Amino acid sequence: MSEISGSKLKQIREERHIPLEQVAKSTRIRLSILQDLENDEYADLGSRVQIRGFLKLYADFLGVPLEESAPQITAEEAPISDASTNQSAEELKAPSEVIPPPKVKSSKKKEPKRIRRRNKTGTAPKDNKAVEVLSPLPVSRSQQMLDDIGRQLNARRRYLDIPWDLLVEQTHIPRAQLIALEQGNLDAFASPAEAKGLLQTYARFLNLNTDLLLVQFADALQERLAEKAAAESKPRKRARLLSPRWVALRRFFTLDLFFGTLLVGGIIFFMVWGAAQLMNQPEPQTETTNLPEIQEILIGSQTPMGIELTQTPTEEAPAFQLPTATPLSVLLDTTAPIQVVVHARQSVWVKVNADNEEVYQGRMPAGSVEAYTAKEYLELEAGNAAALEIVYNQTQLDPFSRVGQLLRLRFDANGMQDLSATPPFQPTPTTTVLP
Predict the structure, then answer these.
(1) Based on the number of CB atoms within 10 Å of its own CB, is 76 exposed (0-12), middle (13-18) or buried (19 or more)?
(2) 389 and which of 141, 343, 406, 435 could share a cystine (Cβ 3.0–4.6 Å)?
(3) Is residue 401 within 8 Å of 386, Cβ to Cβ?
(4) Would you report the helix, strand and coil content of the chain in percent, each value rounded to 5?
(5) Residue 354 exposed, middle or buried by CB count within 10 Å (0-12, 13-18, 19+)
(6) 288 in helix, strand or coil?
């Protein structure tokens, strides 16, 4: 059978002086596809069915009859990557319907049902020709958007007439991935992020509007996710038709009725339980006291009733008790005439002046021992007199019992003077005015 190719159609078009743009406008075939058909380049056009459809439209426009057989594609023109071949085949592939073989008269012996079913659904004999019925598959909107991006890349590459080797060398992207980008095959990449980066690099190399393509790619990804979510959504359960009796029961036994019944039952239970506790409670036994009768109280009895009150001595414990004083002996390596050693039994504030100079002022921690010397005199002030033990010139003084009271002592050559003692009361003289 004679075959008609794109080059023959090109020759016929040029003889009739028909521009290629007019053919593209009338047949609604892109100009780049028409150029590939005329140059007999079928590698990027997909399957044989698609090529034959384009050639048929082109031939019908020129009024040339097209034979049944499509042009054969050589191995060199075939696409290199399997991904591109699979994608192009998926775009226009259609389920093939096989004509069932002619019915054969059944023999006398009946065959099993399983064998008969297999014959019904089996393939046709080799002599019969299978007729392919093309029916377009529904393409998702996201795939249409990805195909549109791929068409823009393909048209730009063909317009610039850049070979694949130069593209791979300049963009550092494998040819299979470049073809997948042009065909909108997002499944050929490891992740959408990788496809986005390669698309940005490829579009920037082709000097396209990179931002617009990335926005279109993002919209396609969003639409793709929405389609997957809609496909994975669980179907709703079909509503059951309930009987009127069951509906009435469900309306009567509500949640409010349940909680109300539970509350009333609880109140009744506690009332019964409280009444049972009151009834089972034993009567309290009252102790009989020998009280005098009213007559004896009113008239009086011969034997007087006397009440003796006995007081038990109680020892009052002091509100605050200091630790027991221990004898303190500290040897000082000094020859000063005044030597004072202070031992703090509790934490107390202390101020020491020696020969009109302040030696120490602050809080002494409990258990600390400090030694002070002076030539003329030494003054000691403390916030709690009972918290200190004092040794004056190797002689331990009696502990002070004034708890929480101010202590002020003066040590000099004459001995110790307690300046904190209250002076005796002396009447103040008053002047009388004579008339």
Answers:
(1) exposed
(2) 343
(3) yes
(4) 40, 10, 45
(5) buried
(6) coil
| E strand or H helix that includes residue 187 | none
* Token digits of residue 256: 């409010």
138: tokens are: 């529904």
Q: 87: closest CA among 4, 166, 150?
A: 150
* C-alpha dist (Å) from residue 118 to 104, 121, 216, 235: 14, 5, 49, 34
CB within 8 Å of 360: residues ≥ 6 apart: 350, 351, 352, 370, 372
Give dist(CA 300, CA 78) in Å, integer: 142
The pLDDT, as a whole number, for residue 422 is 59
Q: What is the mean pLDDT of each run of 10 residues along the chain (435 residues)?
A: 72 87 87 84 72 85 66 39 39 36 40 42 40 54 89 89 89 90 88 91 90 91 88 69 82 88 94 91 65 56 48 47 52 76 88 89 89 88 85 83 82 83 61 65
- Identify which of 332, 371, 321, 366 has the alpha carbon closest to the alpha carbon of residue 380: 371
Sorted by where each begins, the domain ranges of the chain are: 6-78, 141-229, 338-418
pLDDT at 110: 41
Reading across the β-sheet that carries 395-396, which strands appear in turn? 369-374, 338-344, 388-392, 395-396
Comparing 6-78 with 141-229, is the CATH topology the same? yes
CATH architecture, domain 6-78:
Orthogonal Bundle (1.10)
**Cα angle 59, 64, 65; round to 5:** 95
CA-only gyration radius of the chain, Å: 59
Q: What are phi and psi of 430, to 5 degrees?
A: -115, 140
Question: CA angle, corner 26, sides to 21 and 32, nearest 5?
Answer: 45
The answer to whether 24 and 34 have CB atoms below 8 angstroms apart is: yes
Of 413, 283, 389, residue with least CA distance to 329: 389
Give the DSSP letter of residue 364.
Answer: E
What residues have CB less than 8 Å from 207, skipping those under 6 apart? 156
Q: What is the pLDDT of residue 260?
A: 92
Structural tokens at position 11: 């020759």
The pTM of this model reads 0.29
- Cα–Cα distances (Å) from 299 to 255, 303, 306, 307, 391, in that order, read 77, 12, 17, 19, 75
Q: What angle do CA 126, 127, 132 make, to 5 degrees?
A: 75
